[in-house]
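User: Can you write out an input/output pair for a complex, sequences first and structure second?

Assistant: Here is one pair. Inputs:
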Amino acid sequence: MDIKSLEDRFEAKIAAGESIEPKDWMPEKYRKTHIRQISQHAHSEIVGMLPEGNWITRAPSLRRKVALLAKVQDEAGHGLYLYSAAETLGISRDEMTEQLLSGKAKYSSIFNYPTLTWADIGAIGWLVDGAAIINQVMLTRTSYGPYARAMVRICKEESFHQRQGYEIMLTLCNGTPEQKALAQDALNRWWWPSLMMFGPRDAESPHTEQSMKWKIKRKTNDELRQQFIDITKPQADILGITIPDPDLKWNEERGHYDFGDIDWDEFWQVVNGNGQCNKDRIAAKQKAWDEGAWVRDAAVAHAEKKEQKKQKLSA
Amino acid sequence: MKKNEWPLWEVFVRSKNGLEHRHFGSLHAADAEMAIENARDVYTRRSEGVSIWVVKSSDITASNPEESGELFEPAKDKVYRHPTFYNLPEELKHM
Ligand SMILES: [Fe+2]
Ligand SMILES: [Fe+2]
């Protein structure tokens, strides 16, 4: 079959709402876009463990500690589900790791902000996982089968993440004035970066049109961002803390909250490597990769030795 | 960077006795034993399973989607393999 009719068949399948599976024919650009997006998503889960891991040993109680440990372990699992999904498209795990370490592959900019206080762990669960959930729920219906299935599994696990974060915020907000101030400070610092997680405005998002056409995305960045704001504002009200945006107001006509301008300069600065923690994050991953090398090699050597022994026994 | 990548394994989990093993996903491990241990950690952290199978991905032979027409389309016109093909009187219940 020639390329043109393969492409037509592919487009018809997508239009009919069918999933694309690993061995199906797909346009090279569809494959590349997915490798980029899924690996970027996987890297975000993995790098995202670092800011939260920072507080595991200093969690204020055993209850908080086991919850945070379990959450960070889930994020490692999310990274693995996603790496596996990307591997079905013909890229190896090592290649993806190389791309992360060399800076060729990006990860979500949110993880280049530091976790300065315990309240940041609350704010991350509430806002960062909250924003991730909105994006990921949409992606459970994405057109590439392995990606969609990974998302279903991830979404099942995410809701505990957000609830544990919100509970931390709630406890702080019901505590002493100093504790409530910590919660407010964390909200002040994490609010705008959380809104940036949805990516550039639709008008400035070059991939959106193609992504919608191929049903990689079902909603645009701006739609998802609005959805997040509408859901989150009442949650802040319950906590009794204030979202740091004087322009945030309910718009009766639109049926949505209006909100102020996002500092896109900051967004691009962080994307391009100049955030507060970009260098630390990659350095930590590089260190883990280098120091784990002997473990990876030893495991292979051990497996080979066991295999040889088995063959000798059966010979 | 040294190229010593662990092979890929497909993981099948029985969620409870009485049900079949279902494909859950894949992971890397140096050998089968480690694949089972990793599968326990990656896929059954919330009591999702009571039994795990792992099989090297490279040992799986899959049908080719290009040939799915020849493979699966012949079944489409064999409607007589379905109970609804047969015309029976309304009075006849439970058949
Ligand atoms: Fe996650
Ligand atoms: Fe999460």
